Fold:
Amino acid sequence: MKMKTAIQSQYHASLAMLRQVVELCPAVLWDDPAYKNRYWQIAAHTLFYSHFYLHPSAEDFQPLRGLRADSHRFDPTGDDGQQEPQTQAELLGLIDQFSAQINDLVNALNLEAGSGFHWLDMTKFELQFYNIRHLMQHTGELAERLWQVAGIEIRWVGHRPEGV
Structure:
């Protein structure tokens, strides 16, 4: 298996798990004010950065259509999380939009180049591990919240799901 194919596979698998935590979240948990970082905010933040760091640089970044410009921040308006939540349907559509771009974005990477982000002193190759770890850290956080609050488990996806 070639390196880029393996990277694509792990992005697809990780996004499939993010899709599960978004899809299975009960309405009561989606924007629960008991949490400083609302469920939907964590999902949007995760999606934003996963997509962002697959670009050559911040200047080359082309945001997903429909993802709010401030979605990378947990409290973008300073109003303690009172902004209108993005819906599950919106985020599922954004996950699909990102998933459709993964292969092209990864194929365009020069894995031996610098990260392209001055605040990350690493190669593009290492950045892929960094990015997937971030994606899975927040997916795991949401999966744990799902389990604790609603008793809902998600299934592990080990590599590129069928049909992707």
Q: What stands out?
A: The two ends are 16 Å apart (CA to CA). The chain has a mean pLDDT of 92. The helical segments are 3-23, 27-30, 39-52, 88-107, 124-150. The chain has one domain: 3-66+98-150.
